[in-house]
Amino acid sequence: MVAHNSIHVKNSHKLDIGCGGRKYFFNPRVQGEDVVYADIEAPTRRIHNFVRCDAHYLPFRENVFSEIYASHIIEHLNNPAKFLMRCKEVLSRTGRIHILTPNWISRAAWADQSHKWVFNVVTLALLLIRTGYLLFPTRYILLRRLYVIGVLRK
Fold it and tell me: Considering the entire predicted model, what is its pTM?
């Protein structure tokens, strides 16, 4: 499903979704000319390649990005599965999604009242698998944060 008013992305291979706007300062996970930055809020300063959008309805064509970075966003979403399904559509055939979220055993997971979901490594892995991703082996499962990479094989 292509979103209405889909944005054509030139020479961009990475999407950093949830990189910050007004409430959370602009803090991208990756940088470079080939990165598109997206958040539901506009940043306080002008950012090159910034798109204001809802993570559930990414306004990009299918098979555009080779990598998506979702740092500390999945726990804020109304429907994480819907977000992951839309990411799957805009990722290329062998694309990867990098997800960083607070681990359920950390204070940060419970302290922020805007968190709608709390994940541990099993619940996040199962969510990725249920939405069609394969898990990429990673060593970044920390006590305070989870870092999981999902890989597509369409």
Answer: 0.84
**What are the structural domains, with CATH classification, of the chain?**
14-151 (3.40.50.150)
Contact 23, 41 (CB under 8 A): yes
| pLDDT tens figures, 42-94 | 888 888 888 999 999 999 999 999 999 998 899 999 999 999 999 999 999 88
DSSP per-residue codes, 47-93 = -TTEEE--GGG--B-TT-EEEEEEES-GGG-S-HHHHHHHHHHHEEE
Predicted local distance difference test score (pLDDT) of residue 88: 95
Cα(147)–Cα(42) distance, integer angstroms = 26
3-class state of residue 44 by DSSP: coil
Burial class (CB in 10 A: 0-12, 13-18, 19+), 44: exposed
Evaluate whether 10 touches 33 at the Cβ level (below 8 Å).
no
